[in-house]
């Protein structure tokens, strides 16, 4: 099919006024001005034409960090005084849920993402038993990172990893895939991080880990002190890995930095941490609304970017997103882009949109395949209404609110145009 739109926004190239995209099967075969298509009458007659009208046609958004399991916790947990207070609160909340609660929450979150323009999501999965069922229930492209902890359970790291790898090996799907997520340095033992680093290198997998998220975590590793340090010590965590440097330096010692690692949050950086991340080509995922919920220190996007770090955007979970008045929040990467634009005036609309598209594609190992409209990329695309000038296309994307007008994933309409 040929899709014609007022503006085609490839991301990797300037906006095309009165542009068109040729989709063959599940791939894009050409992106060009409509006038160039119309010159080839045989091309036009061989393919069905859909004129989408006054819209911006752009690649589907890549949500680089989410917790679909927790969608129905939206508005249930008010912002805490300390990060450890929040850990205690969500742990108690989760204890009241059963399998059906998590399944319903996951599916509701996937539906919210689809409606608001995400076509690929990197999701942390705490209940992997869900995946066989829920994977088939969404058109999204899902990377499910199986969460691993171990402090509370006291299980040996080798056993934890073996179970996660066996689960991954049992899951097969043409569009979705499962990989690994040691939860965070404070909630796992160093051995589990080292074992994860070895297996993802051997299997050519990706891994996600929450790291340097809060000041309490930073203080725990940097100084072996503070609320989190004392709380975990009371829970008999071996604290011999503390007072040896920052949480980022801790990951480096366990060999868990690299271009196959997504470092989630990275809000609290010591001197040299940005350089360490950039040197190892580790990706960083920023979640602006979650960042605001916890009132974390200023996110140092510019510092990370200057060090060569690929910085992406994610929604995190709705358990860490503020309500607006009485309205519960929804999973919405456009809202994350606007939140970042409001707090980081040095980030251009082009930069922010790249963080939600091409940067996420690179982090997930799909550069050139998703997050852009280009020859041989997957036909993952969305449209939003737009009647303005070509020069304002990037700004208009950031200003968009509400649902997208249409969504296509791998050449099939997930939300057909009206």
Topology:
Elements: E1 2-8, E2 16-24, E3 27-33, H1 34-38, H2 41-46, E4 49-51, E5 55-59, E6 61-66, H3 83-95, H4 99-115, E7 118-125, H5 131-135, E8 141-148, H6 157-170, E9 177-182, H7 190-203, E10 207-211, H8 215-223, H9 227-234, H10 247-253, E11 261-265, H11 273-279, E12 283-286, H12 288-294, H13 301-306, E13 311-313, H14 333-343, H15 349-355, H16 358-363, E14 381-385, H17 393-399, E15 406-409, E16 412-415
Parallel strand pairs: 1-4, 1-5, 6-7, 7-8, 8-9, 10-11, 11-12, 12-13
Antiparallel strand pairs: 1-2, 2-3, 5-14, 14-15, 15-16
Describe it.
The chain has 418 residues and is of the alpha/beta class. The chain has two domains: 2-60 and 371-415, Urease, subunit C, domain 1 (Roll); 61-363, TIM Barrel (Alpha-Beta Barrel), CATH 3.20.20.140. The protein has helices at residues 34-38, 41-46, 83-95, 99-115, 131-135, 157-170, 190-203, 215-223, 227-234, 247-253, 273-279, 288-294, 301-306, 333-343, 349-355, 358-363, 393-399, and strands at residues 2-8, 16-24, 27-33, 49-51, 55-59, 61-66, 118-125, 141-148, 177-182, 207-211, 261-265, 283-286, 311-313, 381-385, 406-409, 412-415. The strands form three sheets. Strands 1, 2, 3, 4, 5, 14, 15 and 16 form an eight-stranded mixed β-sheet that branches. A four-stranded parallel β-sheet has the order 6-7-8-9. α6 links the parallel β8 (141-148) and β9 (177-182). α6 (157-170) runs parallel beside α7 (190-203) and α8 (215-223) packs across α9 (227-234). The longest helix is centred in the first third of the chain and has 17 residues, at 99-115. The chain is globular and about 75 Å long. The model has no long low-confidence stretch (mean pLDDT 96).
